[in-house]
Design the sequence.
C-alpha cells in the first residue's frame, strides 16, 4: 500500500517551510521534552524531506511536543521568559461559564498534574533555546527569533486548556466544520470547543445552562492517546519499499507477525507502554517518549488523523442530530430500558456522522477511501484493547474477556461492527467495501498478534 504524501507544489512548499520554522520555535517554546538538542537535530533532518511529506512531518512533530516530554523532566526554577497568554473566559460569557463549570468539577475530577503541566507550557527557558539554536543560527538570528516569540500572544478558551492540545483541537474542529459545510448541514452556529484536563481518554458534547452555544469538550490526553497508539501500531508493519517514489508497507500477515515477534522497532514495547500508561497510570503522556523512524511518519499520520477526526466528528454528530435537547450534557445515569435503547441508537447515529465527516475531511487531503476508513476504525480497536488490558489487570483471564456496554453507550466493538456494516450504504465509499473489509481483517489479525505478543513478554 502506498502511503506517501503527494509532492507539494512550489507555492505550498514555501508556505510549509515558513510554517516549519515557526513550529520549530514553538516546539521549544512549550518546553515539553527531555532533550532539546536531539529533538532539534531530528527536526532539521525531517526538514530536508519537506518536499515529499512536509505536511505529514509537521503534523507528527506538533503531536510530539507533548509526548516527548514529561513534566518531571524539567525544573520550574529557571524560567526567564513567559509567553503572552489571554483567555476568552475573561471577555466571553460562554467561556467564563465553561471555566466556572470545570472548576466546580462538573466534568469530573481534574488530573492532579494539570496545573504543573500548564505552567510548563506557559514558560520556556530562553537560555536553553539560545544554546540549541547556536548550532544552527547566528546569535543575531536567535535573538531576533526569541524576541518575535515573546511578542506573540496565545488565546486560550479557559485557564484549564492545554496550549498544545488546544492548538491540535482547533485544527481538527476546522476540518470537521469544513466537512459539515461541504455537505451543507444546517446546524446554526458551530459549537464552541475546548480541552479539559481530566487525564482520561474521553469527550462529550455539552449544553451549559449559562452558555448561549453548545460546547464540544475533549480531554487534553485524548489526542495524545490517538497519536501514541497510531505510532505504536504503525511500527509493527514491515517496510518493503522506501525510495523517492514513496513508502510501501507490507500487508503480508506472516511478515507482520515476524516483525512483532522480533520486536522490531520496539513495536511490542511501544504498544504495551501506551496501554499501560492510559489504563494503569491514567495518563497517556506517562508513556516513554520517542521519535518515529522517518519512513513511518506518513502512515502513522494517516492513522492518527482518522482516529482524531472520528472523535471530533462523533461529538459534532450528536449536535447535528439534535441529541442533546434540553440535557446539560450526555452523562451516565440510571436509565430506563427505553432510554438505554434510545441512547445507544444515538451513539450509533453520531458514529455514522463522525464516519461520514471524517471520510470527507480525509478525501480533501487526497487520501483514498480505504486507507481513510482504516484510521477511524483503529480508534475503536484502540479502545477495545484498552478495556481488554483493564480486564486483564483486574485478574480476568484474557480468554474470558467480554467487552461490556454501559447504559449510555454500546460497546466499542459493537460500534466498530456497526460502521463496518454502514459503509456498505454510503455513496462514494460503498464501492470500496470489499477492499475495506479485507484490510480491516488484516489489521484485526495484526492487532491480535501484537496484543498477545505484548502481554506475554
Sequence:
Amino acid at each position: 500500500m502506498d502511503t506517501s504524501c503527494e509532492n507539494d507544489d512550489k507555492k505550498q512548499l514555501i508556505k510549509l517551510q515558513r510554517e516549519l520554522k515557526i513550529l520549530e520555535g514553538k516546539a521549544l517554546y512549550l518546553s515539553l521534552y527531555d532533550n532539546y538538542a536531539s529533538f532539534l537535530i531530528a527536526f532539521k533532518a525531517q526538514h530536508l524531506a519537506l518536499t515529499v511529506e512536509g505536511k505529514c512531518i509537521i503534523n507528527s512533530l506538533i503531536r510530539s511536543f507533548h509526548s516527548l516530554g514529561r513534566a518531571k523532566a524539567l525544573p520550574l526554577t529557571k524560567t526567564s521568559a513567559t509567553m503572552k497568554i489571554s483567555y476568552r473566559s475573561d471577555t466571553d460569557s460562554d467561556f467564563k461559564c465553561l471555566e466556572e463549570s470545570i472548576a466546580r468539577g462538573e466534568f469530573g475530577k481534574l488530573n492532579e498534574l494539570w496545573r504543573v503541566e500548564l505552567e510548563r507550557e506557559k514558560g520556556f527557558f530562553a537560555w536553553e533555546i539560545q544554546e540549541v539554536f547556536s548550532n544552527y543560527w547566528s546569535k543575531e538570528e536567535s535573538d531576533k527569533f526569541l524576541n518575535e516569540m515573546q511578542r506573540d500572544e496565545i488565546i486560550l478558551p479557559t485557564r484549564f486548556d492545554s496550549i498544545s492540545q488546544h492548538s491540535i483541537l482547533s485544527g481538527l474542529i476546522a476540518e470537521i466544520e469544513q466537512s459539515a459545510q461541504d455537505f451543507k448541514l444546517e446546524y446554526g452556529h458551530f459549537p464552541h470547543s475546548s480541552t479539559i484536563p481530566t487525564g482520561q481518554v474521553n469527550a462529550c458534547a455539552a449544553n451549559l445552562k449559562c452558555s448561549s452555544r453548545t460546547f464540544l469538550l475533549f480531554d487534553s490526553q485524548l489526542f495524545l492517546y490517538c497519536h501514541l497508539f497510531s505510532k505504536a501500531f504503525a511500527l509493527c508493519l514491515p517496510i518493503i519499499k522506501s525510495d523517492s517514489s514513496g513508502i510501501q508497507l507490507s500487508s503480508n500477515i506472516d511478515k507482520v507477525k515476524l516483525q512483532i515477534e522480533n520486536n522490531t522497532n520496539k513495536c511490542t514495547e511501544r504498544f504495551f507502554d501506551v496501554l499501560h500508561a492510559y489504563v494503569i497510570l491514567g495518563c497517556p503522556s506517562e508513556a516513554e517518549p520517542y521519535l518515529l523512524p522517518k519512513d513511518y511518519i506518513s502512515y502513522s499520520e494517516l492513522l492518527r488523523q482518522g482516529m482524531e477526526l472520528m472523535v471530533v466528528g462523533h461529538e459534532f454528530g450528536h449536535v447535528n442530530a439534535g441529541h442533546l435537547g434540553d440535557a446539560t450534557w450526555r452523562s451516565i445515569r440510571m436509565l430506563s430500558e427505553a432510554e438505554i435503547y434510545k441512547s445507544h441508537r444515538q451513539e450509533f447515529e453520531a458514529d455514522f456522522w463522525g464516519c461520514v465527516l471524517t471520510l470527507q475531511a480525509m478525501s480533501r487531503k487526497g487520501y483514498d477511501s480505504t486507507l481513510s476508513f482504516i484510521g477511524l476504525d483503529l480508534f475503536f480497536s484502540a479502545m477495545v484493547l484498552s478495556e481488554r488490558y483493564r480486564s486483564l489487570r483486574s485478574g480476568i483471564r484474557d480468554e474470558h474477556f467480554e467487552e461490556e456496554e454501559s447504559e449510555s453507550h454500546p460497546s466499542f466493538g459493537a460500534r466498530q461492527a456497526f460502521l463496518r456494516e454502514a459503509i456498505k450504504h454510503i455513496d462514494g465509499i460503498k464501492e470500496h467495501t470489499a477492499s475495506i473489509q479485507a484490510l480491516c481483517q488484516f489489521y484485526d489479525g495484526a492487532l491480535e498478534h501484537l496484543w498477545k505478543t505484548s502481554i506475554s513478554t
Remarks:
- Residues 25 and 355 are 35 Å apart (CA to CA).
- The two ends are 30 Å apart (CA to CA).
